[in-house]
Amino acid sequence: MSIKMGHCRTVCAGTLAALLAAFSPVLRADEGAGALLQGGARVLEGVESLPEAAPSAPSAAAAEPLTVTPDACARIALEGNPRAALADEKTLGAAEAAAAVRAQRLPRVATSAAYTYVSGLETEIYGSSLAKLLFQVDGFEAKKGTLTTKVAVEQVLFSGGQIRAGIRASDYLAQSEEWKAAAERIALAAEARTACYDAMLAQAMVRVAEESVAAFRRHLQDARNRLDQGVASEFEVLRAETELKAREADAESARTAEKLAFVNLRRILFLDDTREVTVAGEIPWDPLETPVETLVARALAARPELAALDRGIEAARQNVLVKRGAFYPKVAATAQYQQVDGGGKLMPDGFTLGMGAEWEFWPGGKRKHELREAESQTRQLELQRAGVARLVETDVRQAHARALEAVAKIKREKAASRLGEEGQELAELRFQEGAGIQAETLDAELALTTARTGLAKALRDYAVALTDLERALGGGLPEAAQAEK
Length: 485
Hints:
alpha+beta
């Protein structure tokens, strides 16, 4: 056995050396390719000793396979992906912030208690005598320890419009967050649908590749049979073997791409990595008869990003009013009840009503600069809105153009696939009758595989283009999500 293995290694090494020598003119022209092949000699030898990978057995505790359609993917992503929950939490936070600002209109109630102790207080001299001298209060005796409790109610009567403008600004900001959340949900739904279409394409590529492998295996078997009968050369067998290896490599790449596509799909759907998922469903058909200008107008009216910016602009304008309100005086009324343990007639218990005003005449120019900053922020949002509107228009036009291009590709690839099937049948018939050669059959099979691959890719591109167009128009949410919205 060792002699045979050594002989095998010698033959393999000799074959590799012959291969490198045969390609030496090309390698000298491209040093990078030469270095890659020479440096990969040990890899080329090592892979021959690896066993064939056995398919992994399904786990006994694994969940049942989940079959999803593009719309189902959108619903699952909206229900389970943290991005949707995060958008909802931001909306909730903005709503609570608006409620906190509205609370400024309500009166504020506060209570306090204080205990004062003066160790060196002389009650007779400092207390009753001084009280009688100053306030003509008889029978007063001061205590070293005094407990004072208060309950006060304060209501702002006038704030220069700051509270009203602040409430409106917070309401607009809350509405802006709602529209931002809608935009995030639309984007997530479109991403889930695209991932589903990518998985469908990956499955189709595996099927096309496996059909091609099966066809080339038949060609190889035919070539061997013809070689045994003496009507074919070893060159035909070698070419059939070479083409079969290439098709097997393509099938392996297709299966790897399928695994990666489903990994990405499970990521977006936020499913467990071990959950088996299959895709199904039909691709919607849209003849794209609506003029693109009509689509652009619809998008400008419906895109949630623009609605969010509109609410943000209104909030910024209200913030300008808040800054202007700082130039006006503030007026508030207070009602207070006080109880002093040991206060006597000098500090009696009871209610105190009051009204006060405060006006800061000159804060050093702070209010002026804050007002200008608020006005600048408003202008920035308006400019940002104009830029986003232009991006929305471009987004619609690009998605529409890609959809039209995909339709044209589908027509072309469908015709090519039909011609490829006819050519493959004709080549096999000629080969069986002895009028054709195997090379023609292999070329026809390759052409058919290429046409089927192109048709599958064109269908995927069309489905993704429709998804992008729907997203660009501000739609694409599943029916349940639209009802909640």
